[in-house]
Amino acid sequence: EVLCSVIVCHQEVARRRREYWLTRLAPDSGALRQQLVPGAAWVAPGRLMEKRKRQGQSPLMTYVVAGTLFVVALVMYLLRFLTKLHHSDQALMPNAPMPAAPGSQPQSVVLAQAAESRRLDSERNRMQHDPARGLRTAGPFPDLPGSVGTVKFEYVNIEHTPDFDNYPPYHTLAEIVDHWNPDDSDNIPSPFLEELQVFNYSDPYELALAEQYRNAEVPFKIHSIPDVDGATERWTDSYLLREMESSHMHYKVEESKNNHFMYWTQKSSRVKKWTPPTKRLGSMTFKTWLKIARDGDSLGIGAEEKHYYLMTGVEAGRLVARDPNHLGQFVSTDLGMFSTTKKNFFITNVAANKGIQCRFGMKGVIAEAHYDGGRNMVAMLKGAKRYILSPPKDCERLSIIKEKAHPSYRHSTADWSNMDADVRREFSQVSAVDTILRQGEVLYIPSFWFHYIISLDYSSSVTHDQGALRAARGHMTSSCAWAGGQPPNESHGGSESHGGSAVL
Predict the structure, then answer these.
(1) Which end of the chain is flanked by fewer CB atoms within 10 Å, N or C?
(2) CA–CA distances in Å: residue 149 to residues 124, 139, 404, 439
(3) Taking the model in full, what pTM does it have?
(4) Phi, psi angle pair for 102, to nearest 5°
């Protein structure tokens, strides 16, 4: 229709153009007019011009009208063409979601959708199988800062019939430390073999398997947890700056002359000739600490340079509070799985809930080896940490401080990153397993298991402790950590009520 209109318009313009030049070139020639315009009745040129003047027409107006009609027709044609093209695209993708109007969705929905998208991407990466080697492969994960973002991971396949007598697969502690020195957070072995079992929380079958491992008091990892994924998306630098610098937040920063941080409490007066291994800073803000940590990622930092470790937490009495004036309220709000009054996969004994501990580590920070009496669920929200785990049975070879009065009770005095001959000899007989806990994952550390922790880059993690199982108390011999009697039900000293500086 548009094309026909254009053609008719063009013919009319041509006819009027011929009439115009006819009156100019041959005003008195009726025969010539008949030749140029066949079939047209002859009209005297003067009368024709007078008629057009009476009608208010001119040759210029003719061109303007014709041009306008042409432009309108062309625009109509283009609009119709684009409309048909859009409908054809929708027909090819009948289930394609329409974009929401800006601001039409609550922030919580946007964050949940982003977390779900990230979970699906992670799951697609995680489920790449290598049948020839019996492994699952994943990564690299460029969303992780530093060298860990370039690492490829290999995961052992899920054991559908758990053999807890031979799990986890151990190496000697000396072999693990020699293979990858703890002070070297840049040269990460790639591919990195994950020998712990790793389960999908969102898969009912895999969740049931994870419960078996939890009840058997052996370590494992789990991923695709909605609360963790949501907090991972939410805990941006700007979000943490706002929450951590609020008047309702309390935290502390420790400074070490190198990258090693030994736990200690205020019991120093009971031990002679003892000096604190780290310095507590009362004036450093979270903003200042964050800049130092980010600079460590971008510029690098040596093991012998000063390092800073930031700690905070939420006590058990505040976990389910809805009063925004309570300290650390945003932590318990963002991690409802750790701050509920109802039993769930992570909290099997609500009455033993000891709270949530938050640890912000910069690149290279090492938390010296120690054990906790409680069962720990460690959720990695940003970055990645390396955990070297050893079972309770090997405690006598780990140089553990046994005196309860010592400020660093339950911790190892051995320097794992610089083993001397005696330490190496002992570590060659210690069973251990190595793992990297990436953001979005949760690691279960059973009661009394030793763990040595290295922050591979800027990282934020939260730990939930719910006390020890009675059955777990028989895992260590009395000569290792206490002198006779029942083993103590010690939790990590990170609770603010203990005045400690936990290093989880």
Answers:
(1) N
(2) 17, 8, 41, 11
(3) 0.71
(4) -55, 130
